[in-house]
Amino acid sequence: MARSHPQHAAPNPNRNIKAVRTVRFWAAPLVITLALMSALCALYLGGILNPTTNLRHFPIAVVNEDAGPGGAQIVDRLATGLDRNKFDIRVLSRDEAKHQLDTGRVYGSLLIPPSFSSKLRDFATSAVSPARPDKPSITVSTNPRAGTLGASIAGQTLNSAMGTANGIAAQRVMAEVTAQTGGTPLPGATQAGLSSPIEIQSVVYNPLPNGTGNGLSAFYYALLLLLAGFTGSIVVSTLVDALLGYVPAEFGPVYRFAEQVRISRFQTLLLKWAMMVLLGLLTSAVYLAIANGLGMPIDLSWELWAYGVFAIAAVGITSSSLLSVLGTAGMLVSMLVFVIFGLPSAGATVPLEATPPLFRWLAEFEPMHQVFLGTRSLLYFGGRGDAGLSQALTMTSAGLVIGLLLGGIVTHLYDRKGFHRIPGAVGFAIAQDHQAQHQARRGKSTQPPDSPVEPETPAEPESPDEPESPSAQT
């Protein structure tokens, strides 16, 4: 191991309570915390308050199987009547629309059947006959598996557009009926039927089963995976550093350092990485057992467990690398990356197409969105790769590689440059000072009142390569 060149600030035993009266002491915690909470509030509220106002390229499928002019006219009105910047109207075949519904690429669809124009024409010609004519129908389907709020927006938009189309069709039908009757007034019931010649059928495409929290189970399960990696990395880093003797362990009033282990920064990080992998194996299994016990439907148990292990390990390894590279600041950076920026851009509770542009940009690389896509695919879409699982695996792998390279290269560089934690660590010096004070107090309490006080003998300086452990002084 290369010789150390400590870059630590030595403790000042003469510093007293006056240190808390400085501006820096009060400003640093308050300003940093206030900045984080302000970002949290602005991002969270800014992403959910106005989903309809923030709509951009919201995907909706339209299937026109009608051979007559009626269906084409409705499609044209739909395309021209809706804002092209807000809505992405995709005119597809029935099979293409089904594929996009099955992969969560559209939030709803509109189906115009083959007999629409002929039924609309027959309805107008037979309106004055005693027989009750059949109304032409149009089916509006919503896709809650792609997102509950997204399905709601799609349903409202299509039903509203079809209401307008129904009114236009009613005017044409009334004109044809008036021409047939020569302007003779029609009974009220007949007029009421002619005012709404198209029957709008609203259905839910492939409804979610019970136990999915109305489509929120995928989001919360993904959130649990991310928190296991992020929070787990903080707990693991803290405990590993304490057990290796580099940070104190406090248990109530007890404040102690473990005996320091001579280990490099890179080796310490390898230990933390290994623990995060083990934590992923165990935590994913526990999550799966609890979810099954609570009645959450899971068709691909082994696949969900394996993906959970991968997601927890990837997030935990990357977060551990940030903590090892940046120290305390790494925890703040991890919080920004995984939580503060991650949750609003997940695209789970609010569709990304209904959020401000910032969140759509963040979702391209934010871990939370990738974990959500993978979890949603496994829970709602049968683990299909084109339903988000392939993207989730690719992006999570990329994040894992970045975390491994960042932590491995930088900590190895720290070791080569001599930025070791021993000797000269501040915590080691503080532990020595605390233990010396403790022994001095014990000596005074056990010394007889009349016995002379012996002068202290200066301690021999410690070797820079072999520091005496704090436990040896006790």
TrEMBL record:
Residues 31-382 form the DUF3533 domain. It is a multi-pass membrane protein. Residues 457-468 have a biased composition (Acidic residues). The chain crosses the membrane at residues 25-49, 218-249, 270-292, 304-325, 332-352, 392-414. Pfam families: DUF3533 (PF12051). Gene3D superfamilies: abc type-2 transporter like domain (3.40.1710.10). The keyword Disulfide bond does not apply. It is found in: Cell membrane. Residues 433-474 are annotated as: Disordered. Its main location: membrane. Keywords: Cell membrane, Membrane, Transmembrane, Transmembrane helix. Belongs to the ABC-2 integral membrane protein family. This is DUF3533 domain-containing protein. It comes from Mycobacterium timonense.
